[in-house]
Amino acid sequence: MPATQIQPQEHTLTQLREVPAGTAPAIVKQIIDEDGGVIIKGLFSAQVERFNADMDPIVADWASGNSTCPEWMQEFTGKKTKRVTQLIRRSKTFREEMLDHDILLSYIDTMMLETSDAYWMNAAQIIEIQPGEKLQYLHRDLENYPVFRSLGPAGPEVMCNCLVALSEYTEEMGATRIIPGSQSWPDFNDRERIENTPTIPVVMEKGDAFLYSGKVVHGGGANVSNRPRRALALAFCPGWLVPEEAYPFAVPLEMARTLSKRGQQLTGFRSQHNEKLGGGTLWSLDYVELAKVLELD
Predict the structure, then answer these.
(1) Which residue, 2, 58, 195, 209, could crosslink 40 as a Cys pair with Cβ 3.0–4.6 Å?
(2) How many Cα atoms sit within 13 Å of 129 on the Cβ side?
(3) Radius of gyration of the chain (CA)
(4) Is 87 exposed, middle or buried (0-12, 13-18, 19+ CB in 10 A)?
(5) 170: left (phi over 0), alpha (psi -120 to 50) or beta
């Protein structure tokens, strides 16, 4: 699909644009810049069933909600929502086929490598919204790093996310909701505008992925059906920010040795180098590349 076929749209969208997996990264980035996000059709169709089979027993026994965090965070993460982390350790399919995914990461490159030589997988988790869960608080993912909120649309991309449909992903089941174009609003602190702007649902088929900017307003939908809505959430951040998940404390070193070099980079087993951007090396020991210290090379 040539870039000339992608036309800018006014943000009266009733549904997001879709492109097939393998669409050129520049086209995907253009749509994200214009709308805030795009659906990638069939991005993980080959892996969904095996990944679900790896995780089904764990998700089935997982409790909804998280009573160990503050009340506001319990509300945000959902008291009727299951969130399962440590996927590298828990799923062979994720570890070997989904972590270092050429097509997905070619899209992430366009959002992260403008300001960083490398990036982290900020978090990877299954999010399963149970029947009866209410609409999630609308937010921008960059709010994990609140200092960037004041920079508005001119700030760097400090978070981007990929939500993969692991089940049916309908509006009634709690499909993610988004305000297209909100990544370009001048004031990211304007809650009144958020609360008075309609959202649209991100409806997907199993294996599709919703790739979106950390600047766009979104939230999990209310599940008014009698079925759980399951998604895989893969978030990414530049190498110069601290990620949400502390992978080196969760992934055994021997398991890390089996990952690709890029997989090791994503999960904190290699240093972050910013020489081409005029910076130095981060995440090292005695100024030595971490992979050498860990004898990964």
Answers:
(1) 209
(2) 31
(3) 19
(4) buried
(5) beta
* Helix axes 25-35 and 102-112, enclosed angle (nearest 10): 50
Tokens of 175: 């499909």
Structure tokens at 80: 């009727």
Per the listing, tokens 């992903």 go with 169
Distance between the two ends of the chain, CA-based, in angstroms? 39
For residue 157, give the 3-state DSSP assignment: coil
Element at 231 (helix H, strand E): strand 229-238
Is the dihedral angle over the CA atoms 86, 91, 93, 95 positive or is it negative? Answer: positive
pTM (2 d.p.): 0.93
Q: Which residue type does 166 have?
A: L
Per-residue pLDDT tens digits for 18-52: 999 999 999 999 999 999 999 999 999 999 999 99
Name residues whose C-beta falls within 8 Å of residue 74's C-beta, 6 or more positions apart in sequence: 65, 66, 67
